[in-house]
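Lab notebook page, bench 4
Experiment: in silico fold of construct C2
Operator: M.H.
Input chain length: 472 residues
Purpose: comparison with the prior construct
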Amino acid sequence: MQGRDPVLTVAEVQAAEQALFDAGLPPFELMQRAGNAAAQWVWRVAAGRSVTVLCGPGNNGGDGYVIASWLHQRGCDVAVVAPMEPATDSAKQARSGYAGAIVPQGEARAAEVFVDCLFGSGQNRALSDELWALVQDLRGTHSTHIAVDLPSGLASDDARLFHGLAPYDITLALGAWKWAHWAMPCAAVMGRRVLVDIGLDIGEDTSKLIGKPSLQRPSAQAHKYTRGLVAVVAGAMPGAAKLCARAAQHGGAGYVKLLCDDAPQGLPDSIVVDNRPLEEALGDARIAAIVIGPGLGRDEEAKGRLTHVLGLKRDVPTVLDADALHWIGPEFGPKLPDPLVLTPHEGELVALLEAYGCAQQSSEGAPEKALKAQAIAQATHSTVVAKGADTIIAQDWHGTAIARPATPWLSVAGTGDVLAGLIASRLATGTPSGQAAREAVWLHGEAARLSGPVFSADGLVAALQDAYAACL
């Protein structure tokens, strides 16, 4: 069910909440709804252990008082630490309804479960030295750490991390995912993420979290060409193109050709080598998708091979990866295929921004990486897969998507070639470019998870079949 989990900015969350208020829901009732739902998770995690709730002055602190009240009413050993008095009407009402213990400022509180309700998604600056010391002290004296909505000391929208936080055990996202839950560096401190439903009505026109795709078996009448022919254009280092071609075989396409002068060693017999002149080989009207870049090289011959691909008289869905990204710029604008998928890592993303003259981006509303990817997507009328510890997919015409963090074991040479082949394979099946990119990113991450620790790119390819099977 891919792409159905919205990822919201602070403004979008506030608008969704305001819609409830406009429909007649009292703000305090929404706070109770959020706090009670979060409290049930705290209750499960605490499992009878003592709990300390750190409450700030705003509505996140109000949620904390509601959590503490819920726990207190059920006999939990709970106390509140409140370095500041409530400042909003709802938080004041929540505070007045809490009948349990409040630890005086400066007094030590030794318990087992720490619940951080100091600041929520509205916080966009570093904590004061005093508050940061308090958070660190409470973390140090409690064995289990729970963040409500977001850990304190980070920015929700652009995922900036203001302090050297250690990971929390669990983060309870209230109402909707925020960018900081999934974008680096903040994603690294969330621990287990749980989405707590509080009844927000969220529209479709938002960024999305990539979910497990629903893939189809071939029809009873399928043959290799109806399933799609992928052409992988090799270059100076054909080993990378071979890896890309092997991945393309496992992404759903029916036929994979490697366009190169000499077949690399160890190439499976099922991958056909076409060593005709590239212009002639690309003239095959049955080609349903092209991928170029893995192992292409950066000499004039490599540029010439890319020029042949971009100069085709018909639009063929195309993936530009690795070295191919080195060459493109505004001078290729009229020649860029449609649909087109670009797969830059961070350094390539910056180079593309410079090449297209859109290096200066506002940091409002989303992480910098997402804004960079969106700028390149608009400049090239393409789908951009910005790879890394957090992979973000941006499209020229709608929406941005972010993948759940994949295993860090994926950080090994050749895995980007595998992703490029997967995207091309999904394109060859006739899947629209944004959806193809999302499906490929999910399959890539799932194959990495199935591969366990210390795998190679070859091992990743071997796991693709099981990742695909999980989507049928």
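Observations: The two ends are 12 Å apart (CA to CA). The chain has 15 helices and 19 strands.
Next step: discuss at group meeting.
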